[in-house]
Amino acid sequence: MKIYDITQELFTCAVYPGDPSPERKVELSIKDGAVCNLTAFKMCAHNGTHVDAPYHYIDDGKTIDQVDMKRFIGYAFVTSHEGDLTAEDANNILKKANKASTDADCDCNKRILVKGNATVTEGAAQVFAENNIMLFGNESQTVGPLDAPMAVHLIMLGAEIVLLEGIRLGQVKEGVYLLNAAPINLGGADGAPCRAVLIEF
């Protein structure tokens, strides 16, 4: 069994423009005579590797603690793409994922992870929504265009697709993996950080 950690280190992570950066504070230090080392930190729910809940863009949408855990944990299909990801690209990805799902006898076609500098278009978002995928992950800090992410988020979160943003897939080849991207249980929150891992089987 091989485990790939696809999570960014928090205090050096990429931050979406305008979001606050994570801050670390040493509360206690053994070197300074304390009984233990103790760290406090402050962060945005969307720093680094994180998941978006529908409530992020939909005011009556589910908060992160209300989303079914099976969306974050299960088989996933990893593929690669550079640039705008169109409706045609999304359909081609799903064709590959469906074949992999049949070959591996699993539901990896319900969780799609895209390696590379990909930007989901509204057309692609609609394809993923119509195909009832449960989770979509990418390496960018947002799934849509960096300067105008709202429309893509509304389509995908409106279909209750969990968005796993800010993953790192550099060492991961295309194929089927077991994904665990369980978020921290932040009651009432619009998103949460997670420690995302892929297991090769």
Report on the architecture of this protein:
The chain is α/β, with parallel strands linked by helices. The protein is built from three helices and 13 strands, in the order E-E-E-E-E-E-H-E-E-H-E-H-E-E-E-E. The strands form three sheets. A nine-stranded mixed β-sheet has the order 1-13-11-5-7-9-10-4-12, with helices on one face. Strands 2-3 form a two-stranded antiparallel sheet. A two-stranded parallel sheet has the order 6-8. The termini are close together.
What descriptive keywords fit this protein?
alpha/beta; 9-stranded mixed β-sheet; two-stranded antiparallel sheet; 13 strands; globular; 201 residues
Distance between the termini: 6 Å
Strand % is 25-35%
Radius of gyration: 17 Å
Instruction: Summarize the helix and strand pattern as letters.
Output: EEEEEEHEEHEHEEEE
What is the averaged pLDDT score?
A: 97
| Structural class by helix and strand composition | alpha/beta
Give the total of beta strands.
Answer: 13
Helices, by number, come to 3
Strand order of the largest sheet: 1-13-11-5-7-9-10-4-12
Largest sheet: 9 strands, mixed
Helical percentage = 10-25%
Poorly predicted spans? none
Shape annotation: globular
